[in-house]
């Protein structure tokens, strides 16, 4: 009956009209059950699709050890405690008291009545008192229910916030790992080019000794060799810095994983494009889920504001005997108590309550609009990630072809220079072109890997199946007093 008296609007999800699928998905035919099962698994553990055991282990370490993630978990526990605190208003609030001592009253007041038990009207008296007080608010119009509902939505919002943090953490970790492997590939490319530059220097020096070359060519060859050696050093520094970043993301000290990560491994495998991609997958995004929870919380807060316009019903209970001697404290004459039914209704407050309602309504509408904008941004990020995935395939293939062609041109230039048919400048140009092409190809492979990570992040994959780790300070009710255990204060 009381629930039927709850005032304020009930939350209704805002249903936007969205397309059935993504434009950039380009699904040519329906997916098979096997493909659907594979896609569903990738929604849970997308990092496993790269077939890199080191990456998989780093992800597991980050989920267990990242301190930002653990901090977010503690904020969820704090929000749950605040919800329980709000829910405690449903129950009677009861306190006990006891005391005693000497008191003195003023007698400089005309017609001061004689106090019971003190016929001489002496200013001093001894007093012993004990008793209890209680109050119970009857939640007729749902003010407490709406407050608890708002706190419950706040808990759900904090859960989605942790999921969003988890997704960003895994995305950053995966991108750092991909960058680490590509940087190691660039170091290998630089090392190979140093060897090529050393061979070119030896060739220029040999031709000079044979009287075919000149000192300019040997100086150019030496400068090119020095440049190639110098260009490799910043890459080594970058590898160390990325290793430090990965260590911190997994909850370890910088440098703790450096020795392991510096071991050169092949680039992770680029996974296949998801076989099926209906637009409903965007509902997995924690930011969209959090925006909807915030809208629900703002709607509940409108109900709290509306309930303040209605009467508040409170049952106060006070039992407070007092006497001057211990043997008198439990006599009938020492008894003092009150048991009432109180109701209060706001009459005139200059528009304070109606202004609060208008503010709550505006905040709820702002939350609804924010939810819609979050959905649009989510669709944009997914479409962008899909477009990059498809376009970068051809981009990487063309750069691979350019790298092979430039390496062929470099080899031919060296042979022509050895035969005296071209100058050494042509050899330098060919070597630099080859180096640029190889580095661009390596970076294109990094983009292909990042495209996959960004797509999985955009569709909200990776947080399902990761449970909240509950950790707290070593304080429990079992170690507290008996009253805390008995009455769950």
Automatic annotation (TrEMBL):
The keyword Lyase does not apply. It is a lipid-anchor. InterPro entries: MdtP/NodT-like, OMP_efflux. It is found in: Cell membrane. It comes from the Bacteria. One of its GO terms (molecular function) is efflux transmembrane transporter activity. Gene3D superfamilies: Outer membrane efflux proteins (OEP) (1.20.1600.10). Keywords: Lipoprotein, Membrane, Palmitate, Transmembrane, Transmembrane beta strand. One of its GO terms (cellular component) is plasma membrane. Belongs to the outer membrane factor (OMF) (TC 1.B.17) family. This is Efflux transporter outer membrane subunit. It comes from Acetobacter estunensis.
